[in-house]
């Protein structure tokens, strides 16, 4: 009977793509491929806006099974001891067409988690003010189609099973379950006959396709003779797909007989009862009456272990998984931090990473050899870290390969007693650490020698917490959490360890000094405001100078950092002071009635504080108050000019020596702030912005009235004189 296929469709919402500067700019899509899937098809849809700012763009899409893809678009260096394998990626070009649709097919894909990451090319590094320019939206959406076989035949181990391949267009799919502790698997195909009683030719594919690397095994059988394939270390406790396709004529069916057999390894380890007692003792301490039994168990454990080594192919050590936080796990050995390693059989440790939430961090495995425990000076402890199944033949294979995966090798010796391995974004699976003692003269030369190796294994969101020049950020895509490093001060790389473009300490100190000391240019503006008796304005400038200085001292990416309070508070106060300074300066230039001016001061400050709380970096938070204040100033100047029947301000010296230089400095400052700042030149272009704005304020402040003496404090106390002064200000003010 024909097999029953079921198609399923999975979709996720589109995401807006970003230019790449760190992993957080890549947009992640997370899918789950069900069991018995024989065909997987990705539908990738990319689109862009229709505005003139939208140009042709190349989108890079990365694929990986089991964990988010490890990518390196910037070509930076990874941390030492980190294992990196290139990701599988394709490029989608958005040219003249507004939309692009691309299909990617994967036959017999591995079941489980699949991840797609998409991003635009490297970011230009220009700092864009929100609202001045409209960036082009580039959207990307990934959909998944799967074709699943509902009644896939099961191949029972050790039982020959006849099957029929109906035609080359309809391959045969079967599956076999790999038991735990399977050291090897042998697949045999025999009695291959076509319906026309001729010799047949078939191709057998064992395993599923995984990306970026696929270890699917192929076997071509011709004629009726038996053909077989032996696999070392197949994946434990998993279904293994087998596909048989006919290479003959289109109308002929093929009959075959398949047999799968396993060689099971007998593990040797301390008994479960001893592990249970050891766990209780380490967690809660001994109880009266239990100390004697615990001591007896500890004394019997080495004897049992040594007796089992000769009859078992591996020695399993109990490991406890301790969850610390999100994407943070520590592995603790029950029998102590060090484990015995011999040449007779490998020592095996299980590192459980199959919760589905562990693939977003970094797995770190460190080995430390106790030099006094190895009697042979030239002996080496070889280790392999592998997923799905352990490496059980370290004495014969040094590349740590298993049936369908490639492990990561490690080694320690008396000359190099320490070794560390970092696995970036480890795939969701059971991970194994295998250790075995190797002797230069062969295994017979070890003569029962044994070494002790301290094992430290843990899962961390970011290796070394991204170092002193990086920030570890926890990212989220729906319910999946993963971590990435955002580097600063010119440092780069996956863990911010690439110093090829790093700023020197001298450059960092110079940047801090420029950005902080440039705010001292507000001192002339403050002095002018105080001299002309604009005390409220002088207070605002002092507030701005203070918080801008300490905000930039706290905002530095390097080691020259000083934070007197919370960073967010400093940033908010700096932005608030900057906008309010512009607001009060323009209103002061309008020469309004004092009561009206101070009402606008307070009301405008409250509205500015509210708008900054809503959107701190919006351009209209600065441009809105500026334009409204300019409207008030122009209206007041027109009113004064109409009342006096001549241009206001009337003095050409005021225009030439004060207003025009102040306006020019202000326009230059806005141009530098909006169009010239980049990540590389920020420390001096923003310092120029500080200087230009402070100088423009000193030029734009209106002069005091000629009838008003500076520092005439006692004369300001009488209310009657104040009223008279207001009248005189209206009649005789010289501007």
Automatic annotation (TrEMBL):
Q: What InterPro entries does the record tag this protein with?
A: EGF, NGX6/PGAP6/MYMK
- Pfam families associated with the record: DUF3522
Q: Name one GO cellular component term.
A: plasma membrane
The record places domain EGF-like at 458-497
Region annotation (Disordered) ranges? 295-314
Which parts pass through the membrane?
Answer: 510-535, 595-614, 620-639, 655-676, 682-701
Which coarse location class applies to the principal site listed for this UniProt protein? membrane
Disulfide bond annotation, renumbered to this chain: 462-472, 487-496
Query: Ranges of Polar residues compositional bias?
Result: 302-314
- How does this protein sit in the membrane? Multi-pass membrane protein
Query: Where is the protein found, in the record's own terms?
Result: Cell membrane
What the entry lists under PROSITE patterns is as follows: EGF_1, EGF_2, EGF_3
Q: Does the keyword Iron apply?
A: no
Provide the alphabetized UniProt keywords.
Cell membrane, Disulfide bond, EGF-like domain, Membrane, Transmembrane, Transmembrane helix
Superkingdom, natural source? Eukaryota
Q: Which PANTHER family match?
A: FIVE-SPAN TRANSMEMBRANE PROTEIN M83, POST-GPI ATTACHMENT TO PROTEINS FACTOR 6
Family, per the entry? Belongs to the TMEM8 family.
Q: What is this protein called?
A: TMM8A factor
What organism is this sequence from? Cardinalis cardinalis (Northern cardinal)
Q: Which gene encodes it?
A: Tmem8a
